[in-house]
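Appendix B. Raw example, untouched.
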Amino acid sequence: VQLQASGGGLVQAGGSLRLSCAASKSIFSISTVGWYRQAPGKQRELVAGIGPGGSTNYADSVKGRFTISRDNAKNTVYLQMNSLKPEDTAVYYCNAQSITFAVWGQGTLVTVSS
């Protein structure tokens, strides 16, 4: 299984971006998917996650601004990011895991200018 993350870019503070994580196989309905980010000099942190049943969780720093969603038919998980702040600048990664596998996508860079 491979994950392909996309959608990063440069945006001004207050703007929006939508990240996509596409899987090479239909796995999202049976796995927990997370969006993580890593800023320069910082540890990778969980930003948002969605379980196989559709339950979601968010880091406190993004609650109310980011929304994670899943389209099983397209084998894609999205991260809608609104009201972006300079501190959201990071490389964003998606991860999918179940009891039988764990896989990371390559990162996509999000840069928020002030």
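End of appendix B.
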